[in-house]
Structure prediction request, 651 residues.
Amino acid sequence: MTALLELKDIRRSYRSGDQIVDVLKGVSLKIEAGEMVAIIGASGSGKSTLMNILGCLDKPSAGTYCVAGQDVAQMSNDELAALRREHFGFIFQRYHLLPHLSANHNVEVPAVYAGMGKAERHQRASELLQRLGLGERTAYSPSQLSGGQQQRVSIARALMNGGQVILADEPTGALDSHSGKEVMGILKQLKAQGHTVVIVTHDPAIAAQAERVIEIHDGEITADRQQTRQDDVAPSLIEPAATKVQPSGWPQVIGRFREAFSMAWLAMAANKMRTALTMLGIIIGIASVVSIVVIGDAAKQMVLADIRSIGTNTMDIYPGKDFGDDDPSTARALTVDDMAALGAQPYVKDVSPAISGSMRLRFGNTDVPANVAGVSEQYFGVFGMTMSEGTTLSSEQMQAQSQVVVIDQNTLRLLFPDQKKVVGKVILIGNMPATIVGVAAEKKMMFGGGNSLRVWIPYTTMGTRLKGQSWFDQITVRIRDNYNSKEAEQQVTRLLELRHGKKDFFTFNMDTMVQAAEKTTQTLQLFLTLVAVISLIVGGIGVMNIMLVSVTERTKEIGIRMAVGARSSDVLQQFLIEAVLVCLVGGALGITLSFMIGLLVQLLLPGWTISFPPFALFSAFLCSTGIGVVFGYLPARSAARLDPIDALARE
Prediction:
């Protein structure tokens, strides 16, 4: 019949500097199911190394080790983890309980990695602790339990998934005599139930309580003797081994992720200060990025609104080759016929000429300078202007060269400070009296518009009565909304070139100015965003560094988890989830901070419109997740690659 555990010529060597140290030297051993075996030897004899090989925590340098006839050398790391999880139960001298978990949660850990349901494992852990005399202390942390109580929790954890083979490393070494007797009594009960119990000890009195004693000295078995014992065994307090859990499919994957998430959250809560400091860089980075994007967008909209207030989708046509051209041969290039030809084009909505000049306005005792513009009745439609009082100029007034005027709000305030209704009043423009027919409503102009006075009269009146010219200083065209302004500009240029026989004019497209402003503001915003992203990357590097420190500090915890059956992927997943959680919580706090910054800006700058588009918020959370994954992977991989034996030995 095949032995449960069988070792053939097992050797284990370690490198110590330039030397090779042989710890086990050709150990051959069989342990049958249901035996209670004590392995005894002095410190350094190799007994703990032998136990680690028996529990699949360590691998032999040479030889063959079979569990139930299966060679463990042929198993993958995940298969070895499953073997430890479902067949072995470890009882350590130093208990190796996770300090941030309660007694009940410590017992549940092996079942978490086995995929057992939450309610089922909680019930089984409570029952095990109840039968071991800890029913009233299931919610206690390890620091609140005595040494004997902690060892009972360790025993319950070893039995959680069944514990077919119990491996006890100096189980009474850190206990007083009374607690030691209780632990040995429990181990005898387990043997009586059919568990295979292997005890590693240096105490002959403990070894004498086993039915088989194996002595090891300098890595070699020197004695293997059977003992006949007739000790009275107390009635069993331990429930028979649980049925092995073998979940599969998506429920197992989802369950493992949920439990990894829960354990990651508990680990973060146990180290609040470190977690908070880790989050700080992410909070600042996310808040910077979101605030710059949102406030930058508000600033851009303000700039563009000022530019558009001049008139969007409009085009100005000037005589000459460019601004400042004073060639008299081109000064008279734009005429009434040009205006009529432009107005007849299907892509033109409104067109207005302008004859401009600086003149003095007088009313009563007030005499002030103003900008006077001779325009057509369509001028106010070109620039989207409305009247706060009265009407705009009319085509009849153009034909009649009427002495009428539309004034702006600055002129109203200066000439008529105490009057609300001014339509019908007569002012002097130069030496020409003009009747006010309308008052233009306040309209934001580029760069604030200034405090200059502006008035508008019919271009026919301006040309004949005030300036004596029949040509225009400029013509402004408003393009229809559904027409491309670039194409319209090209067609206007072709039309006037055909009419003039040469290009004695130039155009200025307002949409070009808007697009240039948009491009400039976008470039500036992108630059500031990149600066903020750098701070976010620095925060991510901080997460990576703190997580690496966390792995170093929690090396023993990782070893414990691997000993009770955690796969490398489980450890990787948990630490990766911790990193992502830190970044997500930091991202949420960063977004909250950016909301506060936006509210402050709104209070200080009431004219600004601060909005938080869903895309920006979604991008922030996506960025947080990405940082957690990218910068958390290296520490998580470092944790997953730890050797269980080295991890357990780390203090």
User: Anything to note?
Assistant: The chain is about 45% helix and 20% strand. The longest strand covers residues 348-363.
